Amino acid sequence: MSSSVLRVFIAGHRGMVGSALKRQLEIHDNVSIITATRAELDLANQQAVNEFFATHRIDQVYLAAAKVGGIHANNTYPADFIYQNLMIEANIIQAANQNNVQKLLFLGSSCIYPKFADQPMSEDALLAGTLEPTNEPYAVAKIAGIKLCESYNRQYGRDYRSVMPTNLYGPEDNFHPDNSHVIPALMRRFHEAKVSNASEVVIWGSGKPLREFLHVDDMAAASIYVMNLDQALYQKQTTPMLSHINVGSGVDCSIKELAETIAKVIGYQGSLVFDTTKPDGSPRKLMSSSKIRSLGWQPNYNLERGLAHTYDWFNANVLTLRMA
Q: Which residues catalyse the reaction (predicted)?
């Protein structure tokens, strides 16, 4: 980063990724962070977003704001997921361009890739097959965000980049019993089993599916790294029509191994029971992170250390978490 102060807008600063970005950017003396709560700025309101950009003289944007949820939420509210995400990203990217913001980083999702993409999933798998039906509206919106960035780069000469994270976990995650993802769901379940001295914990499925996980602090570090890469280096790994880069740990594990590691971290001594009447989902989901590795970035946390860090945060914040 240059010595002059950069005015950096983090859209979605209260979310898991946005808050991690804020923590890491705050340590830089030459960065002035700009944020707005949902009550202060409705990102789906085009006029409000335009006025916000015109007022704040922004230099860089991290577009981490999104409507997110699990399978149940995606299935129940598909219109909300596609509409709100399309509006948020379109309004921000258009306002950035109108207000001469040259650098923007869009955060996507691994669900952009086809349901039956080859493993590990590489960037060129995008639009090469049919999406997973349960979250297709959300995935289409995220694909549109990538294509918005590419289109503004081609037409206006902007430097708008996109990163696609694998499954994330860490501080500020959602530990809701119904709407959370696998790591926070299991962490809460094992924690409560330990507190109540339960003899067993039941886990959906066979435990055989393989999944990849990345600590959110690693995702934030990768995002800042990609944002500030020399443009020529970035363009060596991308093309005008395929400009996104995957960010993952490069390692997957079975759900059984994940559950055993969480139990170990928490100190739960009971039995793990796998309910094979419940669905497993895809047998494997792993992203290729060779491009970002070739650019010089690698993660800091392995899974056990990352889970321990997350459980420390969980214990420190258990009374205020989204737990019900």
A: 138
